[in-house]
C-alpha cells in the first residue's frame, strides 16, 4: 500500500509540473511580441523568450495593441500582425490605434478610417478627425466640426468650432468661446459655459 502511495504521489508531482510548464508556455505564447532597438538603430520585435519575431528593419515601431503594431519606414506608417506580416501597407503619414474596429489614418493633411485589413471604410476627405467613440467620430470639414457614424453618414452637422469624443451618450463641443454639452441627436443639453472638456462618469460632468 505504501509503495502504491509513493508512486501515486510521484505521478501527481509529475502531472503538476507538466501542467505548470504548459501554463507558463501558454502565458508566454499569448503575450504580444516586445519591441526592441538593434545596434543599427532600427526596430523590430522579440517574443518574451528573446526570440526575434520581426527583424529590426523599421525606423520606429509602436507596441502591439489589439493584435496590431504600428510601424514606420521612410516616413510612412503601416500595420503588422503578431507574426510580423504586413496587415496594412506602409503608405500613410499617420495611423492611430484601433478604436471600435477602425484605425484613423492621415495622408497629406486629410483624414479617414480603415479596418484591420487596410480596407478604406471612410475616405480620406476630412481636415481633421477624432477616433470613434460610442459609434460616432468627430470630424472636421470646411473648418467646422461635426460627427459621422461608421457608415460615414453625417449624424450631427458641421457647426462647431471644436468637438470632442462621446462618453456615456454625451460630448463636449465648443463655439470658440466656451464648451457646451450635446447628446447623440445633437441637442444642446447645457449652455456654453465650461472651460475644460471632461469625460462623463455616471451621467455627470466632473
Question: What does it look like?
Answer:
The structure is a single chain. The protein is mainly beta. The chain folds into two domains: 33-92, no CATH class; 117-206, no CATH class. It is built from one helix and 21 strands. The strands form six sheets. The protein has a four-stranded antiparallel sheet with strand order 4-5-6-7, with no helix packed on it. A four-stranded antiparallel sheet has the order 8-9-10-11, with no helix packed on it. It is elongated. The relative contact order is 0.07. Residues 20-28 and 202-206 have low confidence and may be disordered.
Short description:
The protein is mainly β. The chain folds into two domains: 33-92, no CATH class; 117-206, no CATH class. 14% of the residues lie in helices and 50% in strands.
Q: What secondary-structure arrangement, pairings included, does this model have?
A:
Layout: H1 2-30, E1 34-37, E2 43-46, E3 52-58, E4 60-61, E5 69-73, E6 76-80, E7 86-92, E8 94-99, E9 102-107, E10 110-114, E11 120-126, E12 128-129, E13 136-141, E14 144-149, E15 154-160, E16 162-163, E17 170-174, E18 179-183, E19 188-194, E20 200-201, E21 204-205
Amino acid at each position: 500500500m505504501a509503495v502504491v502511495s509513493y508512486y501515486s504521489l510521484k505521478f501527481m508531482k509529475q502531472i503538476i509540473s507538466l501542467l505548470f510548464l504548459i501554463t507558463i508556455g501558454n502565458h508566454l505564447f499569448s503575450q504580444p511580441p516586445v519591441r526592441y532597438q538593434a545596434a543599427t538603430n532600427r526596430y523590430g520585435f522579440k517574443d518574451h523568450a528573446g526570440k526575434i519575431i520581426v527583424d529590426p528593419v523599421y525606423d520606429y515601431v509602436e507596441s502591439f495593441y489589439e493584435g496590431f503594431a504600428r510601424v514606420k519606414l521612410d516616413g510612412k506608417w503601416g500595420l503588422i500582425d503578431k507574426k510580423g506580416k504586413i496587415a496594412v501597407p506602409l503608405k500613410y503619414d499617420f495611423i492611430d490605434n484601433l478604436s471600435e474596429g477602425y484605425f484613423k489614418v492621415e495622408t497629406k493633411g486629410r483624414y479617414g478610417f480603415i479596418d484591420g485589413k487596410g480596407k478604406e471604410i471612410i475616405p480620406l476627405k476630412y481636415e481633421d478627425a477624432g477616433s470613434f467613440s460610442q459609434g460616432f467620430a468627430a470630424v472636421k470639414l470646411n473648418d467646422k466640426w461635426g460627427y459621422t457614424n461608421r457608415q460615414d453618414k453625417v449624424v450631427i452637422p458641421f457647426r462647431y468650432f471644436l468637438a470632442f469624443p462621446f462618453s456615456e451618450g454625451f460630448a463636449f463641443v465648443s463655439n470658440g468661446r466656451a464648451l457646451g454639452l450635446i447628446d447623440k441627436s445633437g441637442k444642446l443639453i447645457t449652455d456654453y459655459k465650461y472651460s475644460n472638456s471632461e469625460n462623463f462618469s455616471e451621467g455627470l460632468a466632473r
